[in-house]
Amino acid sequence: MNVCYRTSCYGTSIQRILRGSIFEKDNLDLVFVKNYSFQYLRIQTNHSTGKTDNDLITPIFEQQAFGTILDARLLSCDFQDQSLPTLETSNSSNQDQQPYTQETRFGHTTIQGNDIILALTDYGQLVFCTLVGQPPDLSSTGRFECVANITLDKPGLEFDKVNKKLAVDPWSRAIAIASYQDRLDIMILNDTMSRTHFSPAAGMGSIYEEGIIWHMEFLHSETSSWDHILLAAIVYNDTDKICRIIVYSIDGSDPELATIKLVGRLPLDRKTPLPVLLIPLPCYPESFIIVTESTVSVLSADDISCGNVLYPVLPICDAIDHTDPYQDILITSYSFCVDPTLPILCLGTAEGYLLQLDISDLDLMKWKIVKKVHAIGQQMCMLGLIRIEGENVEPTAEVLLYSGESADGQILAIIAGNDNQEQSICYIMQNLMNRAPLIDWQAIRKTGQPDKIIACSGQDEQGSLHTISYDCDSSILYTSENNWNGTTKMWCFSHTLNCVYLVASSSFNTRWIALDNENNMNDDVSMTIQTDTCTIFAGSLKMETLGFIIIQILRNQILLSNLDGERLLYHEPKSEYQILFATAWNSRNHSYISVCMSTGEDHMVQVYACQLSKSTSTLELCLCCQTVLSSAPSCFYRFAMEDQEGNTFDILVVGMYDSKVILQLFDSTTSQLITLEIIDCHDIPHSFATIYYSEQLMSLLIGTRTGKLLTVDLSPKLQRLPSWQILITNRDQIQALGSCPVLLCVSQENGLVFASSDSIWLIGYDDKDARLVIEAVYNHDLKNIEALLPLISIGDIQDQYNGNKLALVADGRLYVLQVKKKVQLVTRKLVLSSTPRKHLLHDHSTSYLVTSSNYKGKVYHHLKLIDHCNGEVLCEHRFDKGETVLALSSNEKGY
């Protein structure tokens, strides 16, 4: 559970966003660099803001990394199809004289894209990775492969280990790696690379600069000359308590004798807040922006060399109107426009302001608010242009992706407005879930409930509780009024292309409802059944001469009607018997009805043939056979099996209160009920279902009154030598599903089995592992499930989830759920709008106890009792100033 907690929760925090030609040549590849993994995504080019059926970026796969990824960048390479170098060439004598060890992985997969991923790890390695796989199935075949690695230092936590920061020259001439303090290493790269034998580094130089290295970036230059590579760094000397901007010039024309010269050092004022961002500018060569906590400044390499302190400065406080005197904004990330040569930047703040900075005139720099969004983290990326649906013009909306800081990330389509508009027009195109940082978490394991992890995450307005579980997701399509109490049985059938009929019965009445293909329910249809009494069974049969007929079986009556409501048959069993269970089916162009009856002391099973009378041409029931039961029946079920010659026979399964299950074969040719097997299940059966594994195996599922599921494996072929036999290969495989009786229902669409007890479960078969699989279905925290039924499809309509529609009665209401077939890790979010600190869930309660705090001028703590079903705050207590909650506990009585 701890591993699931770490991978599922920390794996949503994006450390860096890389976009380029990593696998394909179209620059539509995205890689999310996280603390412990790489995630590969693709940008969809056929997306528009008017479509909601697909996402703009599609995740393909995610791969765990060894250790912690400290930083990562993208390196654009000039590849040439060179032959594989010899071992002597690749390991020259000069390599032994270098202060680093470069290892090229011989025989690595041919590099497909034009860009390489660089990553720094806490093992002291600079790793060069590419993406390999077999398209189009990259989700199962794709992986990140290391093509080369450079050992920088021995693993350790010393401050002078060179593995903290990474920078790449825009012309791909050099790489800079920095330690936490005092040291920077410069790697001079080869001018051309090989796709089959990747050996990037050609030389190295080092810089010693006393102080803490805050930021480091290569500056854009006008040409790709190797003798003029500029590196800017911001170093804070904790001894002198001075922060300096330093620019170095690197001459890499001879990689083996690379020289590094100091261009200049420019100290910042002691009262200047520490720099937050260092942004090299493509629109102004050899220039960069320094963002501090309060100002934005534009400098050039000439300003640093000349010691010019009169550089342009713009206060950040001018970006927004300060209606709240306690609110300050902190810029955390940046992105250039789709055309990076334009002098406009997008900046994101930790308070959720998305800003634009116009630096076309350095003397008149100005701000513009784009939109108030979630708290923005450390990474933003411009994805491209998109056409706004309905606009007959060229694409004018820029697509921006940002990672959330303690909040979900988003993809925005931004339409640039004119100077008179206060804000630009934005569309939210996609949300990216972020469950980090995590403050507290709790694993919940209850009998009859799927395992869950409940975690406190987010801060301030984005604070929330996340429930993480591995189940089949579902959505509610329909909810009825609160008048379905006591409903315990449901049946559905359809004889039209646009409607499904649902029959629901309680102990005192019956309801007849029509469900159309838009999930609308109507109970004002023409009544063809009796509604003032309890129904034992309802369904339909198809006869050659009469077409569809509707069957309703009551306690002491069997009613058959046509679709117009005309009564075709009225039959009463023996006066002293009452019908407890019934079923009906078509077999070999004949129609049959079977009932379980009881007087309280005597019990029997009868099978009737439904046919036309030869003399009167009216419908009649003819008793085919009957058999006496040794105990009162508790449940009844029918399924079909074949013999070795391919003939189909019907099997009746009767569960009894003496914990016995009887399997009887109905032979229509001889009109006999033949007992095949008596199974002792050591519990009272409540329901049955069958599931087919393959042509060699099937299982009879038995749900018991105590919440257990029993599995009996059967051979799907009946044996007829010397008499009828059914082969049982395995029995008494028991699994607890809850504490309530288990109700089993088989889907007529795909043969999957749904089970309900305390929760809803989906039972299927895993072909790969050849075993029965039981997965939880998300039931939206519904309690007291009284009835369950998989609905059949309407006409030829296929649902978009490739799943099932499920009708259930719970908490006095009727619900229709759309259940996905795919089982996956699902996270559900409950927004608290405050920072959660600790939480506790009582074993016998349906509410959370949460302590949280908020920052609106001051910090205060409060205690909330929250209903986890609907997120409603049941009660709240606010603590005095200075008070806080350190621990929560509960006992059997409560919190």
Please provide the count of β strands.
Answer: 63
Catalogue the unreliable spans.
1-6, 82-97, 796-801
Oligomer: single chain
> What is the terminal-to-terminal distance?
25 Å
Average pLDDT rating? 84
Provide the helix percentage. Answer: under 10%
User: Strands of the largest sheet, in order across it?
Assistant: 10-11-12-13-14-15-16
Query: What class do helices, strands and sheet pairing give?
Result: mainly beta
C-alpha Rg, in Å? 36 Å
Strand content: over 45%
Report on the biggest sheet.
Answer: 7 strands, antiparallel
The 3D shape can be described as elongated
Helix count equals 5
How would you portray this structure in words?
With 895 residues, the chain is mainly β. It is 3% helix and 53% strand. The strands form 14 sheets. Strands 10-11-12-13-14-15-16 form a seven-stranded antiparallel sheet. It has a six-stranded antiparallel sheet with strand order 29-30-31-59-58-57, with helices on one face. The chain is elongated.
